[in-house]
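task queued by scheduler; priority normal; single chain, no ligands, no partner chains; default sampling; output format set to structure tokens
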Amino acid sequence: MLGAFVRAFRTPDLRRKLLFTIGIMVLFRVGSFLPTPGVSYPNVQTCIEQSQGNDLLGLVNLFSGGALLQLSVFALGIMPYITASIIVQLLRVVIPRFEELHREGQSGTAKLTQYTRYLTIGLAILQSTTIITVARSGQLFSGCTVDVIPNDSWQTLLIMVITMTAGTGLIMWLGELITERGVGNGMSLLIFTSIAASFPGAMWSIAGGDNGVSKFIVVMAIVVLVIALVVFVEQSQRRVPVQYAKRMVGRRMYGGSSTYIPIKINMAGVIPVIFASSLLAVPGLLAQFGDPAAGWVQWVSRYLASPSAPLHLAIYVVLIIFFCYFYTAITFNPDEVADNMKKYGGFIPGIRAGRPTAEYLDYVISRITAPGSVYLAIVALIPTIAFIVLGVGSNIPFGGASILIVVGVGLETVKQIESQLQQRHYEGFLR
């Protein structure tokens, strides 16, 4: 693999793409440490040392590479864009106009992308306002004795909101630049950069604690096993054979070829884990605004908000399985696939074209999603349970969501580099 990377850098145009991608990733990390105007950087560092932050913001902080708790220019990270993309995909089911744009091809997709950008800016304004409000109230760093925003005049707060929103817009633009001029999907690579940036600090904190060396070895073994499981399942697919009938167009013969429909075991990706984590954060968020002495607040904090609570873990698994089926049903439409196959003279051997084909594809999707949802729940739970038992903390960036994203983005990027190498008559990564 190292030799393949060397050959990639020896190819001039591919080397330019790789260096451009690396440069954007470095710029993204630099922006994660630039403090927002109005924020006292020394006080932020003091608060980080005094408290462990707000667990409700842990997922957003993970996707921002730690920039959220730093209250930096890129504090929101890529999360507003991810949320906007998911909302636009879900609205395709509710708004017929969005579904028509999706079917129009490239022009319709460009329009949906524009809607996603507008929604991203709107969400960035909302989230930046919320984060600044939480920081002013002292709930961002529980137990901190200093103010992270010394001057809380409306002019300062407005500048902070504008800066964080502009940072999100800049991140969105950088991701699109990587997609157009670099290698791989830009948004995915920025998420990969954010999560991977948290690994060294987490490993250092584990190695520096009690029984650090033994815990470090156990954690690394668990991470390697989970990565191997993720690679094995993410590369697995059910191939539904498709045969195209021969047809004459003018004097030329078309069709007569055989292909297949690749159906992945985990078609929903990491989206169900993100949905489940977001919903489970709602009860804890409501409890933050209640009386700490109230019975319902204590019950929510003990049984729902705590990541190690059995009820929390059980609801987490149920939500992951539900959203696996829900998101797969939205993204894969058997009727649409069957209609396209019928339009071009394709059929599944032994299955009639049209409605029977759609029913067969729905049958296959339903059966293959069952083990895929269980696999996703296991991957999400194994690191969490193991790290709680080891006592190394449940908020370190080795959870199921982070491992799925890192491995998935890494595999996709390696495939793109390999395909470009093969186009230039070089050996790929696999010999």
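post-processing summary
- The mean pLDDT is 79.
- The chain is about 70% helix and 5% strand.
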